[in-house]
Amino acid sequence: MSNNNLIKGSLQTIILKLLEENEKMYGYEITQRVKELTAGEIKITEGALYPALHKLEAEGLLSTEIQQVDNRVRKYYRLTKDGQKEVTSKMSELQGFVENLQRILTPDLKPGFNI
To answer: pTM for this one?
Structure first.
């Protein structure tokens, strides 16, 4: 499935939501979780993921923690308090967008009906 442009616009929301559900994660773990949840339909590349993580960190929405795991250094990301608030905002924004998109694509459906 080629969703690259759709994913780019949703990547920050995906990251924030996964971190809300998992407390802390490292980059590779995020890519694998998305792949797992979508049965391989959505694959996030490192080239897309890390700039998004760095941007969220620069905006104060994520904090980082370095840990040594099996002789490897891992950088874990976790939501800050502002990041937790942003998850709610982004999810609401995305829900509104999906509802409007459904109205455009299937105008005969009654409001509140989800595909």
So the answer is: 0.82
